[in-house]
Design a protein that fits this description.
The protein contains 30 helices and 37 strands. With 1122 residues, the chain is an alpha+beta fold. Among the domains are: 87 residues, PAS domain (Beta-Lactamase, 2-Layer Sandwich); 169 residues, Heat Shock Protein 90 (2-Layer Sandwich); 91 residues, Rossmann fold, CATH 3.40.50; 234 residues, Rossmann fold. The strands form 8 sheets. It has a 7-stranded antiparallel β-sheet, sandwiched between helices. A 6-stranded mixed β-sheet has the order 26-25-27-28-30-29, with helices on one face. A 5-stranded antiparallel β-sheet has the order 9-8-12-11-10, with helices on both faces. Helix 1 packs across helix 3, helix 13 runs parallel beside helix 14 and helix 20 packs antiparallel against helix 26. The longest helix has 74 residues. The protein is elongated. One of its GO terms (cellular component) is plasma membrane. It is an enzyme of class 2 (transferase). Its EC number is 2.7.13.3. Member of the two-component regulatory system BvgS/BvgA. Phosphorylates BvgA via a four-step phosphorelay in response to environmental signals. This is Virulence sensor protein BvgS.
Length: 1122
């Protein structure tokens, strides 16, 4: 039964399609029938209209002739007399009287009558004939006045009743043989015919009504004629004659101006017309209606029109549409035939188009039904079968699925379908702990899947963890919730094991980071010591050569420091804490100084190092340290990996073609697109490795680290720095062909570069390298110098020779001086062996050497070389306020170096008390102090009328710190650590009067021994740090967050002034930032800080030099915290 119903359902669309197709065919057939009916109605209407128009025109012509006959009968009647005094009429009368009997003669009286023909038969007495001639003259005159030029083929006749004579106008053709008995017979017979017609109509026709006779042959025998006539009587009523018109039948039937005539002038309707008079006599039969039988048709017309109200009847006869018409009151009847063949000829095209459209419509319906069947119904049937199969398959899959599946109706939470696993893992038999998850899912709205984890309590076995993923859908036409139930018991157990393993890994990673931090500190300690010693050495008196060697040592030390800085930069970049400064700098000077620092390595490896900065580059605003870092990394890599050949560094504006990955112009609005390009002839890099180079700790070859060293962080840091400058770093390389690294930076301009030398001598450049020559000439010309390539002796007097090659046999003659530029030359020009020598990577030095070689004094003086920089002696009385004793001690030492006397206060209250006792030139106060902080101290001093400058000292990293200091009334603030130079500059700025009178002093070398005891300072620092750390540890253990933050800030401020305390300062800063986090995070920072403090203060070399309180193992109290 179910299968039968299914088959019936599948057959229903086919049957419905057949019914629809049949209905469409019926509709199309109905449209065709409607069209044919409307066309037939139109044909009938058109033919009826044409028939009415033709019939009306014939009747109008008939009425015209009848009117003419009535008028003519009156004119020729007894009341009219001929005027004898009318000379033309008299002459005409004489002409007519002179015509002999038995003859026909043409007469004419121009201006009086139309040409006429007088036909005279038997003779009559003279008196009677004179009266007859008078009637004829009046008739002729009226005929001309009425018709003018008579209509074609129509003649007017005045015929005497006795048949003796007749006047015909217009005149008959002269070629007619009219004479003798023929004339008499014609006139006599004509009179007899009219008399007979008059007698026939006397019983039915009122007197005075024009009569029609005919048709009869024309006197010329050419065509049939109809005659309209009326008897003319005298005063006594005696019959005198007949006034008549002879009208060709064709002219009468074609009159009236009927539209749609044939080329012969015959109306289209008239060709198929047949006319009868009131007696049923045939008057006219059109040439296209010759097949009709007049006698039978006359009776049919009379019968069809007998009951017509409008005088029109329609019928079919002999394959033609017949239209009958009758003129009420006139007696004439007409029948018009419209053959079917003519209908086909007139409307065959429209009928053929209709039949064609009908056929196309039927074909379209049949083809459409076929297409619907094959393209819709058959696929629909197949889809229905597939859906049935899919439903059966889905139910099978649902039961065989390895996860629990359940479909729940959202309206009433009724389970519509589920498999065995769903019923087993998460039963819904009762409202137990398995039911609330369903309520929660049903409460969710939207299409986003909902994920819930449910802990199914243990029954006979262990508890089970299941993950339920629910999503709203439609099932059986209703809203439903599809739930997928996963048994995740083993997975959750694995996650818990993984979390424990991750915790152990994090602890190991933290230990590794602490170890790296410790090792970084161990490396930095001797490195900072070396750098500090070199800085102190630079303050002593040194020879020029010694100072340059000292600069080289310092630059080399920076290379070692760079490795550690890379690690720190990478960690900052990973944490998103890398920030850029924005200060003006000269990119050309920056590039040249960087290249000079790497030149010794290039000379050592025998590499040709070239530097080509583009002339005309402006000064830029940005972070010169980071720009130098990018150049140094790219240049250092090129020198490191290039065994032979050359390394070229270019600095220029970047055109748009050099930035395929940047969809904007080279110089964006307000910025300069600076392109740093480093090209080498090294081993090259494979394409598949190039992009990986910018990943951290990645090098092109695993053996690279063993052969060349390095951490693999340089390029990664360069790309991050370039991104911060709205740029990018890219590489183009092929194995065996070297590499080209490009760094694109976008920086705002800071104005044009200052002119190195306003006046330069003419220069000739001597070198075998075309690129060096062209760049040197372009650079000199951009500086306003006349520069040419050297081709021999000096072309003009006063020209200086610039030699950029070692391969020179002899110096050309005639030059005012010679300047050798060398990669290992001094930064400032030196006169050696009769020539000047200068470094090839120092434009300013080269310009000064050219001036010196020409005997000119350089406008830009080189940096002065002195034994030590002068230290200003300000002679100020300064109140120093800081709660940390080490900070007070260090500030006292720095102020003593500047010639100032410091009075120390350990709190704001103590500072107010000291101010009451004496006055000071300036107040230096720490901002963050317990009790009364620096801002509150400043406000109280200003409230008391203190106007001296107040400078705040802060190590805070919080935003808005500077604004709060200024709002409190401070003049300036300094960030810790406070160095000697910035401190002196600040004092000069706030007290310009004292700065103007300050005397610089140079500290002699032996005075270094009289500097404050650094061991004592370190001991004091260690003592205060121990106290602060003990308090910090106690606060961390008890969760006193404000105390933690206070002691961390104190420790950070103290270590900011100590040498090599960067790591401790950073840890204290992080501790301040994380003080609002959980106690565990704070304790982790405390532990890490303890490790750094132990590494900083518990040096194993000579701890007794600054630890006075006991054995070493008793002093490492911070390590006991770990």
């Amino acid at each position: 039964m179910a299968n039968w119903l299914s088959r019936a359902n599948r057959q229903f669309p086919g049957r419905l399609l057949a019914v629809v197709a049949a209905l469409l065919i019926v509709v199309i057939s109905g449209c065709l029938a409607l069209f044919l009916h409307s066309r037939f109605q139109r044909v009938v209407w058109e033919q009826a209209w044409a028939s009415r128009q033709h019939f009306g025109a014939v009747l109008a012509a008939k009425a015209t002739h009848e009117y003419f006959i009535r008028r003519m009968a009156k004119i020729t009647g007894p009341e009219y007399r001929l005027v004898r005094s009318d000379r033309p009429a008299t002459e005409l009368e004489a002409s007519l009287m002179a015509v002999p009997a038995g003859s026909a003669r043409a007469v004419d009286a121009p201006g009086l009558i139309n040409p006429a023909t007088l036909m005279r038969g038997a003779p009559v007495p003279g008196a009677e004939r004179s009266a007859a001639v008078s009637h004829m003259i009046r008739f002729a005159i009226f005929e001309r006045a009425y018709w003018g030029a008579a209509p074609q083929g129509v003649r007017s006749v005045f015929l005497m009743a006795d048949g003796s004579e007749a006047l015909v106008t217009p005149a008959l053709p002269a070629a007619l043989p009219l004479s003798g008995p023929l004339v008499a017979d014609a006139v006599s017979n004509w009179a007899k015919a009219l008399a007979r017609r008059t007698r026939e109509a006397s019983a039915t026709t009122p007197a005075g009504t024009p009569l029609w006779a005919g048709p009869y042959p024309d006197i010329s025998g050419q065509e049939p004629m109809l005659s309209c006539f009326l008897p003319v009587r005298n005063a006594t009523g005696a019959l005198l004659g007949y006034a008549a018109t002879a009208i060709p039948v064709r002219a009468l039937m074609g009159g009236g101006g009927v539209p749609g005539t044939t080329p012969a002038g015959e109306p289209v309707a008239g060709k198929r017309a047949i006319f009868f008079d009131e007696r049923g006599k045939l008057l006219f039969q059109g040439r296209d209606a010759g097949w009709l039988l007049p006698h039978a048709l006359s009776e049919r017309v009379a019968r069809e029109l007998a009951g017509s109200e409008h005088g029109v009847g329609y019928w079919f006869e002999q394959g033609s549409l017949m239209i009958g018409s009758i003129a009420p009151g006139q007696g004439w009847r007409a029948a018009y035939a419209y053959p079917l063949s003519q209908a086909l000829a007139d409307h065959g095209l429209a009928l053929a188009a209709a039949l064609l459209l009908y056929g196309l419509g039927i074909a379209a319906v049949l083809q459409g039904a076929r297409m619907v069947r094959h393209r819709i119904l058959v696929p629909m049937q197949r889809n229905a079968e597939r859906i049935e199969d899919s439903e059966r398959f889905n139910r099978t899959v649902m039961q065989a699925a390895p996860v629990g599946l359940r479909v729940v109706r959202t309206a009433d939470a009724h389970v519509r379908a589920e498999n065995a696993l769903a019923a087993q893992w998460l039963p819904l038999d009762a409202r137990t702990q398995g039911r609330p998850w369903l309520d929660a899912m049903l409460a969710q709205r939207g299409e986003t899947p909902v994920r819930l984890e449910v802990r199914v309590p243990a029954g006979a076995g262990a508890a089970r963890d299941v993950l339920v993923v629910g999503r709203r859908t439609r099932f059986e036409g209703q809203d439903a919730l599809l739930c997928a139930i996963h048994d995740v018991t083993e997975e959750r157990e694995a996650h818990r094991e993984l979390a424990r393993a991750r915790q152990l890994a994090d602890e190991a990673s933290a230990a590794k980071l602490r170890f790296l931090a410790t090792m970084s500190h161990e490396i930095r300690t001797p490195l900072y010591g070396m750098l500090g010693t070199l800085e102190l050495l630079s303050l002593t008196s040194l020879a020029h050569g010694q100072r340059e060697m000292l600069s080289t040592i310092q630059a080399s030390s920076q290379v070692l420091l760079q490795i550690l800085d890379d690690l720190l930069d990478y960690s900052r970049a990973e944490a998103g804490r890398m920030h850029l400064d924005s200060v003006p700098f000269d990119p050309v000077d920056l590039l040249e100084s960087t290249v000079r620092g790497h030149a010794p390595l290039a000379l050592q490896k025998g590499l040709a190092l070239s530097c080509y900065p583009e002339p005309g580059l402006p000064c830029l605003s940005g972070d010169p340290v980071r720009v130098r870092q990018i150049i140094g990394n790219l240049l250092g890599n090129a020198l490191k990996f290039t065994a032979s050949g050359h390394v070229i560094v270019r600095l220029r504006r970047a055109p748009a073609s050099d930035q395929p990955d940047v969809p904007r112009p080279a110089d964006a609005a307000g910025t300069v697109a600076l392109l740093i390009e480093v090209a080498d002839t090294g081993p090259g890099i494979a394409p598949e490795v190039q992009e990986k180079l910018f990943e951290p700790f990645v090098q092109a070859d695993p053996s690279t680290a063993r052969r060349y060293g390095g951490t693999g962080l340089g390029l990664s840091i360069c790309r991050r720095l370039a991104a911060l400058m709205d740029g990018s770093v890219s590489v183009h390389s092929e194995p065996g062909k070297g590499s080209v690294f490009r760094a694109l930076l976008r920086l705002p301009p800071a104005g044009p570069r200052p002119a190195l030398e306003p006046v330069l001598p003419p220069v000739a450049v001597l070198t075998e390298d075309d690129e060096i020559r062209n760049h040197a000439i372009a650079t000199l010309r951009a500086a306003g110098c006349k520069a040419v390539a050297c081709g021999g002796p000096a072309p003009e007097a006063g020209m200086v020779l610039l030699v950029a090659t070692r391969r020179i046999a002899a110096i050309p003659e005639g030059y005012a001086g010679v300047v050798f530029v060398r990669a290992d030359g001094p930064a400032e020009p030196q006169f050696v062996g009769g020539s000047w020598v200068v470094n090839a990577y120092h434009q300013a030095g080269i310009m000064r050497a050219l001036c010196l070689a020409a005997g000119m004094t350089p406008a830009s003086a080189p940096p002065a070389v002195s034994a030590a920089e002068p230290v200003p002696q300000l002679g100020l009385e300064i109140l120093v306020v800081d709660d940390h004793p080490y900070n007070r001690l260090l500030m006292e030492q720095q102020l003593d170096r500047l010639g100032c006397r410091a009075t120390l206060a350990d709190s704001g209250e103590a500072a107010l008390a000291l101010w009451q006792q004496r006055k000071f030139d300036l107040v230096l106060t720490d901002v963050h102090m317990p009790g009364m902080d620096g801002n509150e101290l400043c406000r109280r001093l200003r409230a008391r009328g203190v106007t001296v400058p107040i400078v705040g000292l802060t190590a805070s990293i919080a935003q808005g710190e500077a604004e709060r200091c200024i709002e409190a009334g401070m003049d300036r603030y300094l960030s810790k650590p406070v160095l000697l130079g910035p401190l002196a500059e600040c004092l000069r700025a706030v007290l310009p009067a004292h700065a103007a009178g300050a005397t610089p002093s140079v500290e002699p070398q032996d005075e270094l021994s009289r500097r404050p005891d650094s061991a004592a300072s370190l001991a004091l620092l260690a003592h205060t740090m121990r106290e602060d750390f003990a308090a910090l540890s106690a606060a961390a253990g008890s969760g006193e967050w404000q105390a933690i933050r206070h002691h961390a800030h104190r420790m950070r401020g103290a270590m900011a002034l100590a040498d090599d305390g960067d790591e401790i300062v950073a840890l204290c800063r992080e501790l301040e930032l994380d003080v609002v986090k959980a106690q565990e995070a704070v304790q982790a920072h405390v532990d890490n800080l303890a490790l750094y403090l132990a590494a900083y203060f518990d040096e194993p070399d000579d701890p007794a030099s600054y630890l006075k309180d006991g054995p070493i193992d008793q002093q490492r109290d911070w390590r006991s915290t770990i």
